[in-house]
Amino acid sequence: MLNMITKTILLMKKTTLSLLLLTLLLGCKKDSFEEVKVKLQKIDEIEDYPDSSLFIGATSMYSANDKIYILDKSRGDVASFDENFEEFNVFGKFGMGPEELNIPTGFFVTKDSVFVFDQGAGGIKLFTDSKYNKTIRIPGGNYPTRFFLYNDLIFSTHITENTNFVIADINDTDAEIKQIGEPFKFPSTFQTMIRNHKLLYQSDLLFFAVSDNLPIIQIYDLENYSLIEEFDYSNIPTVKQTLNFIKEKIPLNEKSYTVSINDAYLHNNAIFILWATRVDGYKVKTIFKFNIEGESLVYNKTYILPGEYYTTFCVSDKYIFAYNEDNHTMDKIELH
Fold first, then answer.
1. Which residue range forms the structural domain that includes residue 218?
2. How far does CA 15 lie from the centroid of its chain?
3. Which pLDDT value is given to residue 32?
4. 20 in a domain, yes or no?
5. How far apart are the first and last CA of the chain?
6. Three-state secondary structure of the chain
7. Residue 14's pLDDT is what?
8. Residue 299 belongs to some domain of the structure
9. Do the domain assignments include residue 23?
């Protein structure tokens, strides 16, 4: 009888130990993350306009209509060219007039229309076939750089304590402007107001809100504007290293915050994030690619750009076009 009890206790201990080991293994598997890094090569560049004037301060880029569009806030204009850096066209210039741009911060391209958010004009200026069309008045105190158009509605960042975005009808300027979205809540109202700047993108019946300081992408339903998921990509090793560095080396400041996402782009059912690393010096040359699968996102790979500091970019089927701030060049980078 004593032997049977002893064997039973030993069996229970072995079973408990096996379950503990299995739990640890599963836990390690869940926390582990294999980051796939792909180094990309530059195959061409351009440093000036046809009139030999230089790129100065590109803040936003777009790929559409077989062209690359670039907004240069320092010049106050939008330039477009094909993927071979030919067929240049430039419109807009500094000024306070209807056809001029005062403080342009971002833009969106669809068919033959370019929508430029002009902080100085208090709204979005619409250019059709490179000609000024009209100004759409919307709130914009948060300087949106990435917004989108869906069913003649502009979706843009505008932060309040309880909402994060505004929706404006481009055809009815007297229509009520809707306020939607769920801002991240921070310890103070001021932090909530300054840390909810997001880059907005639309795909089918979803829209994505990319935070510029948190490794989180919000996914919303375009039909009822409900929040579907907050996709957290902080488990990527490069992201973890950066966040740990910020936590250890950069003091918290109530009046400011640290930007880690310099830009983002949506192309061919994937979202690309331009991430700033800090462990080996400040560099902005890392792009994370996430595939859109159903109503969620899945990490695909990490691209390493050839330069050291890029401010904005866009993606076409074969290339990444990115503005190299160090060299003031537009880099054409082959995509793998």
1. 34-334
2. 48
3. 56
4. no
5. 69
6. CHHHHHHHHHHHHHHHHHHHHHHHHHHHHHHCCCCCEEECCEEEEECECCCCCECCCEEEEEEECCEEEEEECCCCEEEEECCCCCCCEEECCECCCCCCECCEEEEEEECCEEEEEEHHHCEEEEEECCEEEEEEECCCCCCCCCCEEECCEEEEECCCCCCCEEEEECCCCCCCCEEECCCCCCCCHHHHHHCCCEEEEEECCEEEEEECCCCEEEEEECCCCCEEEEEECCCCHHHHHHHHHHHHHCCCCCCCCCCCEEEEEEECCEEEEEEEECECECEEEEEEEEEEECCEEEEEEEEECCCCEEEEEEECCCEEEEEECCCCEEEEEECC
7. 39
8. yes
9. no
pTM: 0.89
Residues of the chain with pLDDT under 50: 1-30
- Can you give the CATH number for the domain in which 168 is found? 2.120.10.30
Torsions phi, psi of 7, nearest 5? -65, -40
Structural domain count, the chain: 1
Give pLDDT, residue 141: 56
pLDDT in tens, 84-126: 999 999 988 888 888 889 889 999 999 889 999 998 888 899 9
Tell me, yes or no, whether 236 lies in a domain.
Answer: yes
Q: How far apart are CA 111 and CA 119, in angstroms?
A: 24
- 135-179: per-residue pLDDT in tens? 888 865 567 889 999 999 999 999 998 999 999 999 987 888 899
Which pLDDT value is given to residue 96? Answer: 86
pLDDT at 1: 44
